[in-house]
Amino acid sequence: MKLQLRTIFLLAFLASTHAAISPEVYWKVKLPNTQIPKVIKDFLPQPDDVLPELKQDNSNIQKKVYYGLSGYIAISWHHAATEEYLRELEQYNTNTKEKAATNYDRRVLKKENPSMNCDTNKNELRQVTDDHPLKQYFLLEKDLEKGKVISFPSLLNKNEAPFLPRQFVESIPFSMEKISEILNHFSIDSGSKDAQTIEKTIKLCEEPEVEHKEKKICATSLESMVDFSLSMLGTTDILAITSEVQGETQKSQRYTIEEVEQIADGDNMVCHKLNYAYALHYCHVGGSTKTFMVSMIGDDGTKVKALSVCHKDTSFWNPKAFPFVFLKVKPGTTPICHFLQDDQIVFVPSK
After folding, report:
1. Looking at the predicted structure, is the pLDDT value of residue 94 above 80?
2. How far apart are CA 303 and CA 296, in angstroms?
């Protein structure tokens, strides 16, 4: 027992002095009562890993930037919906309505020609915009009820960027002022898609917080994510939870809600994994929220336990942001919810 206590104190001392301990040990020291989510554990550095930062020439690395499927939609409330996206939505609606109208005409013709193949639903004209991929990311709290059928894209994000130890990532610049140095470090062509992604991600991270309403950090390491969670939630009794997916396909599909469990009501911290050269998370606390675990089953039999965060105060969101455009509500009038893909982590006090 004495040996065990001595070991714990030693680890705590090492952590407090930022000595070279692994990210996993750092988590266990700082958050001793919090289980490490699988989506973090799977991408932690292993003892035999060769870090890109230690290579003399990393031009032979297969992946220079890691991409997820969701982009930045879940944190899009900062900005007005761009003209490009609004045009895309309008064109999508036009094309789908034309298709629906055509199918409606075919149903009429089918009465005259019973052999004609037509599988269109009679409500197709009215529901043509409900399955738009951007709209599916947002919903109202009243939609989180047992038996409700909703459409949603894949909850698998597929961003496989590995975590790197803090002592390595802190030696790499992370700012637009040093963009050339960053691209050179990772051997990325300045005219490439990867370079555009690196630039977009850094610009997002350098955007100012919403004063008195939001606290955020782009955590370049697991250690900085842990430190930020402790400073924001003010306790070491923390749950770190993620969505869970069993056998999901990549396509959008309909899900039937089987159970809705409220996990927390109050402050939480959410960390969204961004597209970058290593594991980078946009972690933020932004007003009071409700956090739910929603058990659903897809049309293809996929079972998911999806985290949904409902923002109770949207008064400080951009009034032309995606959620208001697609849900047709105004800021501050009703809670707005969104599901989180499986590599996005919610931190909430456990007591």
Report:
1. no
2. 6
Average pLDDT (156-179) is 93
Contact 225, 131 (CB under 8 A): no
Residue with tokens 């990867």: 194
Report the residue count for the chain: 351
What is the C-alpha radius of gyration for the chain, rounded to an integer number of angstroms?
23
For residue 298, give the 3-state DSSP assignment.
strand
pTM of the complete model = 0.79
Q: Which of 279, 55, 26, 240 is nearest to 160 (CA)?
A: 279
- Phi, then psi, of 271 in degrees rounded to 5: -120, 120
Amino acid sitting at position 43: F
Strand order in the sheet with 215-219: 215-219, 281-285, 269-273, 345-349, 238-241
d(CA 176, CA 93): 38
Q: At what angle do helices 23-30 and 2-16 cross, to 10 degrees?
A: 110
- CB contact set of 60 (below 8 Å; sequence gap of 6+): none
d(CA 53, CA 58): 8
Helical (H) or strand (E) element with 239: strand 238-241
Query: How many angstroms from the chain centroid is the CA of residue 282?
Result: 9
Contact 151, 167 (CB under 8 A): no
Domain boundaries, the chain: 23-48+64-88+133-349
* Tokens read off for 325: 């455009």
Q: Where are the strands (E) in the chain, listed by range? A: 138-140, 149-152, 215-219, 238-241, 244-246, 253-266, 269-273, 281-285, 289-298, 303-311, 336-340, 345-349
Taking the C-alpha atoms of residue 87 and residue 147, their distance in angstroms, rounded to an integer, is 34
Sole residue written with tokens 């409902």: 310
Nearest residue to 174 via CA among 136, 135, 224, 120: 224
Q: Which tens digit of pLDDT belongs to each residue from 51-89?
A: 544 333 344 345 789 988 765 555 666 667 666 656 655
The closest alpha carbon to 292, from 272, 312, 318, belongs to: 312
Residue 9's H or E segment, with its range, is helix 2-16
